[in-house]
Write a structure and sequence with these properties.
The protein is an alpha/beta fold. Helix content is about 55%, strand content about 10%.
Length: about 350
């Protein structure tokens, strides 16, 4: 019995594996507990292993790759069509085993531990930012009930609230004042957490060559650069820049039939966080493009003459993503005056 391909359905405790030989015949159907997985695969002849890109997938991919196996990660939505009949762990493992052998399957690059660590910082910061915004909105809403209006922006809530509370013109109950001071203290803690995480991200950025290279692109700062470097992992997994933009959801969604092409809004597939960073960065570039004369700014101004500012911002984000792929895939530095040779 020679096993050539194995599909693993990951779980918290019980892992289901499905193996086939060179002819595609099922020769292995087995359940393994978490503490048995490494012991089992280190004794197994090296083969191709397929895993869905889910929680813990990159960890197991690194461990199995170190044993000599060829590990390939796939997005769950690409595996789902291969599930036959009802959904079970055994059916999922069989579907993974079949999907990994498809010649046109798209695979996910395996991230190393450092890339996962910087992405964890980004996710934690994103959570603190959401909590900070919610806390500021709650304070603003409570003050509005007493006729006190704070200008838009978290900085006004942080700096001006205590001054407003101490003002003699506002006759507020003592219990309400104590509550607002408590909420304000919590807001300051969230602000400090966000600031500390940004410091760590900037520190990683200052020591990473690829991140510094991307930050030279207009509209991409340390936050976006570090998130892109950690998420993309290996730019050569994409054949060209358009594949990267499609992965980020920055290309039009198609609904074509009968030879009649129909393009809709952007697909919004992939990582919402990355797409948001790119589009917000592009908005800042579009806003000042009229004062600059580089080739990309001229292109942006031509786009603004034809389309709405929001459309131009997404188009600029798409162009920046293509530039990102070119810099990472070919090891180049950003050149604002670069032109494609005829």
């Amino acid at each position: 019995m020679t096993i050539t391909t194995i599909g693993i359905d990951l779980a918290k405790n019980i892992f289901q594996i499905h193996g086939v030989d060179g002819s595609g015949k099922a020769v292995l159907k087995k359940q393994l507990r978490r503490n048995q997985v490494l012991t089992y695969f280190i004794k197994l002849t090296t083969c191709t292993i397929g895993i869905e890109a889910c929680g813990g997938a990159h960890y197991w991919a690194r461990k199995l790759t170190a044993m000599g196996h060829t590990v390939k990660l796939m997005a769950p939505q690409f595996v789902k069509p291969y599930v036959k009949a009802n959904k079970t762990d055994a059916a999922d493992a069989e579907a993974i085993c079949e999907a990994v052998t498809r010649p046109n399957m798209r695979f996910v690059a395996i991230k190393n531990a450092e890339q996962q660590a910087i992405l964890s910082l980004h996710r934690a910061r994103q959570g603190f930012v959401k909590a900070r915004t919610a806390q500021a909105d709650q304070i603003r809403g409570l003050l509005g009930e007493y006729g006190i209006i704070i200008p838009q922006g978290i900085k006004y809530v942080i700096k001006d609230m205590l001054t407003l509370l101490d003002s003699p013109e506002h006759d507020l109950p003592g219990a309400f004042t104590d509550l607002l001071k408590r909420l304000h203290a919590h807001l300051l803690v969230l602000e400090e957490q966000v600031s500390d995480l940004e410091t760590q991200i900037n520190s990683w950025h200052s020591h990473n060559e690829y991140s510094q290279r991307l930050s030279k692109i207009p509209g991409i700062g340390p936050l976006t650069a570090t998130a892109l470097v950690a998420s993309i992992a290996d730019a050569n997994c994409f054949r060209n820049g358009r594949e990267l933009t499609a992965w980020l959801g920055l290309v039009p969604r198609q609904h074509s039939s009968g030879g009649r092409p129909r393009l809709l809004g952007i697909s919004k597939r992939g990582d919402t966080y990355l797409r948001t960073l790119l589009i917000h960065g592009a908005r800042s570039v579009v806003r000042v493009a009229k004062n600059k004369s580089s080739p990309t700014d001229k292109w942006t101004n031509e786009m603004l003459n034809r389309r709405h500012q929001n459309v131009a911002s997404v188009a600029r984000a798409n162009k920046n993503a293509r530039i990102v792929w070119a810099l990472l895939a070919h090891g180049r530095d950003y050149n604002a005056e670069y032109k494609i040779a005829a």
